[in-house]
Amino acid sequence: MSRYVLRRFTATLPVLVVVSMIVFVIMRVAPGNVAQMLLSGDSGGGASPEEVGELSRQLGLDRPYYVQYAAFLVGLLRLEPGTSLWTKEPVLHELAQRLPVTLELAFLAVLISWAIALPSGVLSAVYQDTWVDYTFRVLTVAGLSVPAFWGGTLLVLLLVRQFGWMPPLGYVSPATDLRLNLQQFIWPALIIGYATAAILSRITRSAVLEVLREDYVRTARAKGLAGFTIVGRHVLKNALAPVVTLSAVQMGNLLGGSVISETIFTLPGVGRFLVDAILHRDYPVVQTIVVLFATVVVMLNLLTDMLYAWFDPRTRQT
Amino acid sequence: MVGQNNCSISRRRIVGLLACGGVAAWASHGLTEAQTAPPGGETPRYGGVLTQDTFADPPHFDLHQSETINALLPLSPCYNRLVQCDPLDVNKIIPDLAERWEISKDGRLYTFHLRRDVKFHHGKPLLAEDVKASWDRIFDPPKGVFSVRRPIFEAISGIETPGPYTVRFVLKRPSWSLLTNMAHGWNVIFPKDVLATKGDMKRDVVGTGPFKFKQYVRGVSLEVEKNSEYHVKGRPYLDGVKTFFIPDTNTAVNAYIAGQLMLHEVTVESQADQARQALGARGVVVKTPQMSCLTLEMNAGRKPWSDPRVRQAASMAIDRKEAMQVMTDGAGEMGGVMLPTGRWALPLAELQKLPGYSSDKAAERTLAKKLLAEAGLANGFKTTMTVRRGQQYETAAVLLRDHLGQVGIEAKIDVVETATYLDRMARREFEICGTSFSTAVDDPDAILGQNYLCNAGRNYGNMCLPELEKLHLQQSQIEDFNARLPVVHQVQHVILKNVMKAVLGFRVTWFLYASSVKGYRPQYSRYLAETREQVWLARA
Description:
The structure holds 2 protein chains of 2 kinds. Chain A is mostly helical. Chain A contains 13 helices and no strands. Chain A is flat. A 6-stranded mixed sheet of chain B has the order 11-16-12-15-13-14, with helices on both faces. Chain B starts with 10 loop residues before the first helix and ends with a strand.
């Protein structure tokens, strides 16, 4: 087992190197000059080529690409991936400020999606082809079809126009004021959670339907067990595996940040940070975030592989 | 109430003094309206935090090196300038850190006498050396410092400090716009010791202003708090000002309606109407023409745009009335070079005689086709229009493509994000481009220096007209407004005949603010010093 883990872990390293290389190249190939932007802001202006060149030199952007890339890799290995070209703050420090926002939003969204998806998926399966099933299916299709920007905007409009209220601007940590924090997060979490629940609910329905047809369920029914007990004790437990897997994938996606919800609800999360950094050609920030999230995804995959290997020794041979 | 030493100067008064006494040095004294009585005649109330917003974070805190409102709006309350535009009448220059000044007879020596009761936020008193250190980096920046507005101050040859509270600006030639341009919101005074230690102010906020820096949370807000040791007694009224960074304009309007923002600006009338209907008497909406315009830039470094006839044809193809209808719900102003509602603008009748401004668009478009034929392009031609990503730019591009197409210029739209746009413009790697520009003040030196002269940063068309350079120098050195105005009009004729930029029109902004906000007066430019010094909050 340990040899298998070592082999798999070693195989992940080239993936990360390739990801870091791709993001480095893409950022350098993309048109736009960060020195030009730093000098003239976003309104354009009169920085001379000499001034742009001088700033590029100061930022180390005039060095050969392989030198810049090597410096970036060494920084990553030392866990010092550099400073933001715009704020001069260490990238990890900047990221640490935004990660709690994204984590909280992702956690709440997944929680809400479970609260919606599990009951609706199970009920839909149990009452297959009845009005209950049809209602939940329509609702889930709606959840899949409504884009977050539209739902979020409508929700804010509804709150403002009907109640003269909208979630407080900015970000308040739950440690500072839990009530205010929840007022800020509950609405975007609802929008994201509903969209996420739509897929989850459909997966739950399929999985429950599959399990309901199993022999042991028929046996349980024959033994005279109550429907609620059969579903709660025997069906749900066995149907949850794909739901949990999908939730983990969705959690991973949400950790990358939900740019639109963060923008509409003015939350300073990782998504907005990354998009701003891309637009501003803040190379160290973009490179670090992309490599960091690639690492998280790779590690999650590694963990899954290890779990499979633990469950099924046959996979260790492949 | 405050500032017994405060003084103001006006040209009329100077002339009067000269006429009466024949004095060699000019000065004038008197209380400034802006610093003595709050507007509206109501008794100001102390306390409260004003909330406002802008669409993005400041790239850094160094205002001398900045051009974006995202830096100026949140940081302006922390600083003072030598002189300022009167918040109640922007055409009037009033004292700020300089309590009075003298201008030599030949207009080449400006001597400023500083207030003696001013302290920076870190405790150091303001001295002439701070003013010199700040202004040296504006007009003659050291290596590594990028002074955005340097071309406006090319007349300055040096700065002297004959005493600890006296600063002398020595000019190469008279520049009668100097005081006006010194009053830009950007020209703040930094402490010399911080500049010497840090090299720049990109991460530090140390000023003398009515508010002190409190907190900056990137992506959320920048907050400033009351400076209780502020040199103007009794000011400021507010406990603080908090600027939120809200990229989505709908979110910002909603936040204003929900009462979370007290001050917000929109450029679309429908949004102003939404706020008006939702808040009724609880909100105020003020429509103000802005020193900001949408333009079509034509690169004279590329054929066929190097031919003035082609540029004239393009300008003639544009229906500016329709452009304003589409871009500003019909509220924008048609204009040429200077602010259409300002004192320097060409009269409409004169403007209408210039290429592109005729009220008979059909006849003008026929003439445009004739001009293209004369230029050897009787069958029209294809070109690429670079357009910055953004709703207003993209809408303008579609409109421009349609208008240009009517005279045979087939423009392919190439929408690019801001980083690419800035890069292309800086390297002049475009054929034509739909863009915009804003200037802090409606002043010929400022507008020409930043947009039209040979070395102007935003002379994207890459045109260098000796005639314009000559006229600019001439107008800049004329003190008397009535004598200067015809030359400024001549300047505008040269620019518009050569179509250095095809201006679609000037924007209008709707300023929305809660009725509890008092002492606030929207201006034609967002780039003047909005220190919020005299703003106060009535009980809601």
